[in-house]
């Protein structure tokens, strides 16, 4: 069987101050923001900084009840999740569920940049929140 994971899409870092994090990556690594978006359904604002064919995704909450706000309150700033590219999010999600792994999303849903995403719960993936990312623009 071929791997369902095709590439690393992004590494997400939860931050309290998005502008300060963007400035730090700019000043230290000369990295620039390629894409910014607020995802109201998740209660986050994001900035994507390109690294080769992947991204660093800086995330900050836009409301106190968002999962990222709860994460920051519990763990502080730092690595939040890893996003893996998949050819078909629905097929990958069904394979994950069939393996017995716990998922957060029962069905794929819209993500940022026009992607289709689903999350795998960290309790069954060795403590790492995993996002499956299908990018229909790159098919």
Assign the CATH class. Alpha Beta
Low-confidence stretches: none
Count of helical segments?
Answer: 3
CATH topology: 2,3-Dihydroxybiphenyl 1,2-Dioxygenase, domain 1
> How many independent structural domains?
1
Provide the spatial order of strands within the biggest beta sheet: 2-3-4-1-5-8-7-6
Would you tell me the overall average pLDDT?
A: 96
> Nearest-angstrom radius of gyration?
15 Å
Strand percent estimate: 35-45%
Describe the global form: globular
Provide structural commentary.
- This protein has 139 residues and is α+β, with helices and mostly antiparallel strands.
- 22% of the residues lie in helices and 39% in strands.
- The longest helix is centred in the first third of the chain and has 12 residues, at 18-29.
- The relative contact order is 0.20.
